[in-house]
Amino acid sequence: MKRGTSMDIYFLEEIGFQHLSIDRFLPEKITLRDGHPALLWLDTETNHGVLDAEYWVPESHYEHNYRSAASGNYDGERFTPEDHVESYRSLDKQQFSRVAPLLRPDSKVLEIGCSYGGVLKEVVRFGVDVCHAVEPNKEDARFVKSSIPEVNLIEDLFLDADLPESYYDVILSFQVMEHVPSPRRFLEKIHALLKPGGSVHIEVPNHNAALLRNYKEARHSIFYYHKHHIHYFSVQSLNRLCHLCGFKGEVTTDSIYPFFNHVYWHFNKKPQKTAAVALNTPDPADNLTDAGRSINEFYKNVEMEYGKLVRQHGVGDILICQSTKI
């Protein structure tokens, strides 16, 4: 792995961006979530960011140490796989709803970086012919093997995993591709594993998300950038990369964090305590009176309108690429 703070042809090749000119990238100083200063290389044409290799974690980190450093509790308290299942239940169902139209009873499905298996469980419940997964984290892999025995799980990094080519109908990847040095190699391998006409569904964080670009909350910027994410995608950069790697489709944006999470950030300058709280908007009033029910309905309508707004302007917190192999 190359180390240093220079943008050159060798670094471009390592990250799979050798088709781009070095002159497009400018250095930008950032602060990572752990408080350390770092350097981001910013593509001035697409707003795609690449963390300088000086700050990358080693790939072995994901096998044993990732869960100690990345927790659903934002105060740093460690989460177990069981904790993740409970906290991210609503998100898992939301993510599955986006991929369900791709599935059929005879589908052969692969999920890359399945974590604790939240979406996989929904895929198995739907009923498909084959369900495979790749997960490098030892703790998560053990949990998935014991809790979802229908899944054939490979404990490895995706790019190192031995998988059959031209075999899968659908390949899924949620919040994974931002972690890999070369998203181009990642997409090229997906292309090789899919059958002709097969579908890929990828979700990654959006580098043009509203909290980062429109609210301009300085504390959120520090929370947003962290050492596990090498790539920070935009609609334009992800679209171009998918087309370059032989996929047909368009990238859209959506939000997994609701409007009231953004309001919390705006007024409190910090994240909510846990992912479970941040991802859900509870009914603020009781449902025992007409007034209470009307207040709760008002909050739901605000959330829906805000969701429409961020999708319309491309500033949702995630990018969604649902494409077909050509």
From TrEMBL:
<dbReference type="InterPro" id="IPR029063">
    <property type="entry name" value="SAM-dependent_MTases_sf"/>
</dbReference>
<protein>
    <recommendedName>
        <fullName>Methyltransferase type 11 domain-containing protein</fullName>
    </recommendedName>
</protein>
<dbReference type="Pfam" id="PF13489">
    <property type="entry name" value="Methyltransf_23"/>
</dbReference>
